[in-house]
Amino acid sequence: MNRLVNSTSPYLLQHANNPVNWYPWGKEALDKAKAENKLILVSIGYSACHWCHVMEHESFEDEAVAAVMNEYFVCIKVDREERPDVDQIYMSAVQLMSGRGGWPLNCICLPDQRPIYGGTYFRKNDWTSLLFNLADFYKQKPEEAEDYAVRLTEGIQKYESIEFVVAQAQYSKTDLQAIVNNWKRYFDKQEGGTGNAPKFPMPNNWQALMRYGYLMKDDEIAEQVKLTLHKTAFGGIYDHVGGGFARYSVDGRWHVPHFEKMLYDNAQLISLYAEAYTWQPDELYKQIVDEIITFSTSELMSPEYGFYSALDADSEGKEGKFYIFTKNEIEEILGVEAGLFSIYYNITENGNWEEEESNVLFRKDSDEDLAAKLGLPVHELLAKIAASRQKVFDARGVRVRPGLDNKILASWNGLMLKGLSDAYRTFNKPEYLELALNNAGFILNNLLGQNGRLSRVYCATSSPDKPVAFLDDYANIVDGLIALYEVTFNEHWLQQAKSLADTAIAHYYDEAKGIFFFTADDDEQLIARKSEIMDGVIPASNSVMARVLKKLGLLFDNESYIEVSAQLLRNVMPQLAKYGSAYSNWVMLLLDEVFGINEIAITGAGAETFRKEMENNYIPNKIMLGGNTGSLPLLQDKFGASTQIFICKDKTCGLPAHNPADAIKEVEARFYN
């Protein structure tokens, strides 16, 4: 065993028996590289990553390859989910060198951590040859290696950086149109989503476009959002037997998934489909939300109500083996019902993907269309499919399950807290709220130290008072706590959100640059202190902070929060029109700036009843506050003998409405005409 044997990361533990003399990232390895003047080999991945497993099996388990690595390099393994700060730096390096990135991520660095070469997956022979060449290059031409390291490190430090913008901008619908007109050139109008292959769900993209389509009254955008939501939910990227989405599809039709299931995707997709149901009610959206939550609670939730990180793509060393079926297997499970099930999910004798006779389940037709083709009442079709699906689920349950990454990450639990709160907001199911409350309790009891600082990773045996946490941990938990306040009107959650936001500002915000760093001012100093600005499969921590500070500024009447949010948007605004999909969370902030935010205050004994009724109406640009009592500035002098709804904007409130219908009329009159 190597030095990874004492790690808590499932990914590092996967490599603990490699013949490679792996070290975890830390002082021991970094000091060794300097003392012995050896190149550092930084290899980064995560436990559910299929190609990480492939490279491990081909190269890192090979004695001959390991001998080369051990002879010439200090080899460091990094779990990108535990140390996204390290991953950011070396991903930037590889993207600068090759124009692309991914995992496994392999970077060769000088003894002081500055990179000189990098890439992603390498075949065994290519990997060995590369290692020999780089070791020889460093020995024979150290000056050239130094020169390259200098230039590459300068690029890393400038990568994803922005200028401080002083002038206060005036935003308009024209700005929004410019962003979206460029963005929609990349739409796939046949299969939904953008581009060809691979296809990622990108929930934040479609949430932003949903809001844009509604607020801008753009039917073309609205139709693209609906197409994408349906195609994604019908595709093989969705687990039709057990619920939950895979990370992406390898093809352009959402058909063949890369089978790993990540908490962060599914958490955000709960929010997306829940909001879509309020926007344009569709039973499919409701079904998807419920099935993702069922999957997440049964397969990703710890006994303490924290959520684990991921399920592996592989089982029994084979990608997707847990999820795929031959037609014969379906017939053995279902008997006479197999024919209908096979039609519904497009299961064929020859198979529908790369492995002979194997099938990835997916849908083509709506229930109504298929029922009409088959001459069945819709309710009968659905009842038969539900019964068959349960039998297939039970049969699948005895298979060898994919590996579980049981890390509990603060950031991703914040996303899940928001997803559960959004689901309750839309569907009013008490079990969703109970899950959200339990998850919030877990976060605050186990990830928040006495000193008010977060820990990124939950560990039952250590105190969170010696934290390693990053900006995304603070941003996403604050976002989740605000969402929980808005569906409970319990100010405890909001005060916790405010406290965490204050901590983030104190330790991560650079007032001179008007941007948040990803790492705290008292964290380990790496070769660059980066800022996360571009939205990806998870929104950038700066964009989340910008949006939550805007909300907190309104809720607490705190101008300093609003100014930090405004400064962030000013700085990023010049980038937005270039590539909208990489700034979708910023686009939602811009929508709020252009259309204003409806501050909806509901006071009195019937506040909860009125809140639920108000939530049945799609108002994407709003914050909700209220209750029977409350200390927030906007609630002062608004408690009377009856339940009232106040619609406010820019510190000005209209006359109170005494029922939700009148309040909605006021919203429409003031904001949408």
UniProtKB/TrEMBL annotation:
Task: Give one Pfam family.
Answer: Thioredox_DsbH
State the Gene Ontology BP annotations.
Answer: carbohydrate metabolic process
**Per its UniProt record, what InterPro entries does this chain match?**
6-hairpin_glycosidase_sf, Ssp411, Ssp411-like_TRX, Thioredoxin-like_sf
Domain (Spermatogenesis-associated protein 20-like TRX): give its ranges.
Answer: 1-155
Provide the protein name.
Spermatogenesis-associated protein 20-like TRX domain-containing protein
Native source organism of the sequence: Mucilaginibacter gossypii
